[in-house]
């Protein structure tokens, strides 16, 4: 299994604190030794750092922890391989261009019987996760050859996720840089931080941050993770089948499949 | 204008030496202050580092110079913006998936009258370069919906590049991770290093490397750049209209459009 990390914010926000917590689970406090990756949107641009090495030992991960890249949408992942060998091409998050936007996707779980499509988007590697991402984009493109709003798109996303969930475990994060869609089949949690901000203490590393000092009163920042990353704050757990659409830090739509 | 850097090798080779030379031109010995990027293939996986900041001041560029990523195919670029604003989404190299492979592209020059297509691949940013890349992939996909060998593909690539050349200046590098295609409309040079290896001295930085100590007798490594990167070796310049296809360090096909 793997762990997911997502962020949606209304101002460019650095995710160093949460990323540092997650990275510990990549070989130190957790077993996810088979690579990690994180995608940061800057406008419509997407910057992905990734490594098939354990995150707790990766030099690229150290750079990302040192370097406060500010972003409004982030998707991160650490991997414990079950399907597909350990190599760069099987490392999340995956990305593809659709409608002239960069789409980014990460998955936690395991799917049976989903193989690479011979349709438009095709997997480069051999994970069930990338196969699901390609299948999902192929469904979107078939339904809507031209761009539509995410509100119009949502039923297609939810239907696709519901069908993957029939094949196993399917927790995922998906974004086009504007919105962040999250689907929970078994395990996902979220927290929205807004004024008054307080201190937060990581579970997985001896690191505390006082968000009060790092933020302005109007900031709204939501973090999504497989397991809560801090132990002094109240995270909300998704129910199985629950999906949420985030934009600029706020939950703008939700439902249950 | 911009500068290109390409590498094709028959063993995973680090490009730190050449990259260090190129990076100096990004704001120190050259005027290319508007971003830089470099894509490394690891098998079918593609790892892109990029930054809209000047390469001579970029922290990510420093990581890449410190971190000897070994690869058989590399495409790098430093940018002096003429079309499209300075931001991540306009930073080369660009990549798209086609036929289940990651394709990577960088361009030096300027094209008039080429706009984003409403076909399958669409630009995310607003550069002429990304528009050309999308147009080229759309032509390939139209001609060959299913994968063909690069030998079969070549006429389509050459015809596309020849047509872009009519619109301005079009020097480019393109790869799918296996082969590296290069097209020169005005300026491009290459060098193939093989045994007996000797020392090389960068033009743009006080850095010398003795390739003898870094290689085995069977290594073949070709480096391609807009301008020669070393001043004690014999680089060959492409003629205008010349294209070359490289694979595992060797030129396997060439011609003149």
UniProtKB/TrEMBL annotation, chains A, B:
PROSITE patterns: GATASE_TYPE_2. Residues 2-257 form the Glutamine amidotransferase type-2 domain. Transmembrane segments: none annotated. One of its GO terms (molecular function) is glycosyltransferase activity. The keyword Transport does not apply. Its EC number is 2.4.2.-. Gene3D superfamilies: Glutamine Phosphoribosylpyrophosphate, subunit 1, domain 1. Keywords: Glutamine amidotransferase, Glycosyltransferase, Transferase. Signal peptide: none annotated. SUPFAM superfamilies: N-terminal nucleophile aminohydrolases (Ntn hydrolases). InterPro entries: EgtC-like, GATase_2_dom, Ntn_hydrolases_N. PANTHER family: GLUTAMINE AMIDOTRANSFERASE, GLUTAMINE AMIDOTRANSFERASE YAFJ-RELATED. This is Class II glutamine amidotransferase. The lineage of its organism: Bacteria, Pseudomonadati, Pseudomonadota, Gammaproteobacteria, Pseudomonadales.
